[in-house]
Amino acid sequence: MPFQKVQPEKLSASVVRQIEQLILRGILSPGERLPSERELAERLGVSRPSLRDAIAELQEVGLLESKAGSGVFVADVLGSAFSPALIRLFARHDEAVFDYLSFRRDMEGLAAERAAKFGSDADLKLIQTIFDKMVAAGDPSVSDAAASLDAQFHSAIMDASHNVVMLHMMRSMFDLLHEGVFYNRRIMFSRHTTFEVLLGQHSAINAALQARDPAAARAAVEAHLDYVKQSLIDHQRAERNAEIAQQRLEHESAKR
User: Fold this and answer.
1) Directed axis angle between helix 144-160 and helix 164-178, to 10°?
2) Mean pLDDT per 10-residue section of the chain, whose length is 256 residues
């Protein structure tokens, strides 16, 4: 018979598995500091030597990193999603912006559909909480806090889809957006949209999710990102027109 004796598992192996799951599920994020050794050992119910063994193993495989005098942190596991050369290429070409928005439209639409189907009550409560904060924070074109909440809202939907591959892939994409690789959203929204329009779109997304309506949730996300794309097109056209007008003015002035 194909049976083997069950081997007792080391405590450190259990710790490794638990921390791996927290990173995999996006609960522990890149750059997040772990509790102190003493506190973490108490929370996990293991000895400090067992915890050290687990942390050493996770450091060896690149999931954790130690910073002298600061503690132990989750490593930047998303950093390898795109090479620096490709990131620079994205930043220099407009077509990458529109491909990025198309990709987000497809992935976030699917995530919203999944979140409406599979999201837990806690997931939907978190999304509602972030949306309420968005309402209170005001216009994302003038408020860093509001812009951050906008990103958190979309990330929370991704988390609620409960697909870990999608979660980590899209977090890496959001990081590039936050760094301004694709476009500066504050500049883009400052001229061609209003807080009320954006809030209405996010309200529609939230309402569909809270109603657990997958089709409506996906449609609302797709409509929002279609609007973002058109706003960007309008902004680029306005910038180009302003540049042409300035050239004409300078040329006419030079004639005098």
Assistant:
1) 160
2) 63 90 86 92 91 93 89 77 76 84 93 96 97 88 79 91 87 74 63 78 97 98 92 82 84 76
